[in-house]
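Why predict the complex rather than its parts? Because the way molecules touch one another can change local conformation, and only a joint prediction can capture that. The input here totals 320 residues.
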Amino acid sequence: MADSANYSEQLQPDVPLNRLVTYRIARLHAKLNSQATRILKENGKLSLMQWRVLVIVNATENATHSKIAAQTQIDGGQISRCVKSMIAADLLLAEVDQADHRQINLRMTSKAKAMFQQALPAMRKRQSYFAKALPEEQHDILITALDTLDAMTELSSFPD
Amino acid sequence: MADSANYSEQLQPDVPLNRLVTYRIARLHAKLNSQATRILKENGKLSLMQWRVLVIVNATENATHSKIAAQTQIDGGQISRCVKSMIAADLLLAEVDQADHRQINLRMTSKAKAMFQQALPAMRKRQSYFAKALPEEQHDILITALDTLDAMTELSSFPD
DNA sequence: GCAATTTAGTTGACACATCAAGTTAAAATA
DNA sequence: TATTTTAACTTGATGTGTCAACTAAATTGC
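Output of the joint prediction:
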């Protein structure tokens, strides 16, 4: 009795939190975000969300809210607000699509292009450093493992 | 000229976003969070933050705000507010430490214990499923890779 | 013992995340 | 063509994440 009570006192007996993938991912995510935010601050004044929007708008012909949402997984509501503020800040130009009046085609202003180019080298350097920091085999396993975990988040129950 | 302009149009030419570790981590983190939130909702009414606090309080003799912060990496301000609301909700008991009047020792109420026990099986099952989903060797490599990435987030510049 | 520093916790401000409800336009279907 | 359904975007509510300023108690160094 005492044993089983004891046993259930920890989430996983003898497994420290920093071995748990969920905690590790949460922590790493927070640190990656704050690093990216810092790099962007040091290389212009784009916020991380503005940066993410520009990455898509920059690479996409006739970018729209929904294309940005599809690529980045950012919530539609947030994109709406972010784009709105970027238009106000003279970073994006919006034009209602003539074929479909619901959608709004977005283009970067020259100001946005300049800011994007300013941040790009540091951001790209970081990405390639990340890619090179892991031996290729390890990197592949990481991506595979992330795929596996990603698939598991779709499950609503866990078979034994 | 056209080529170099073109080249710089993408963050990493020919690398789709879902190969970039930073995006993968961000997405996985969001999905893990929403899955955990859903499981907790289906097995009681604890929020994810309340759950995280209870995991520590449950496993720690004389838990305090700062011990929770140290273990979980949750922001001190958030812990303060979360603990406050949990005391109001009759989930935690607070007692000023007699040896150090700054710190507050936290204990679970029986209500919290019951809710924790109610959520525990599903949460533990999820964790062990995560652990089993990856072959041990892959799991070790994943943890190693996460360690490496974690260390890289400490860098303020990226050597070539 | 006393000033300076550090540590524990609180509070406020603000950006970001998630969800749900609403508007308008397009597409499907009857 | 009229009705229904779906899609694109907006807006509001609420919870979470991050940061900085603040109070009070303990510790450190004279």
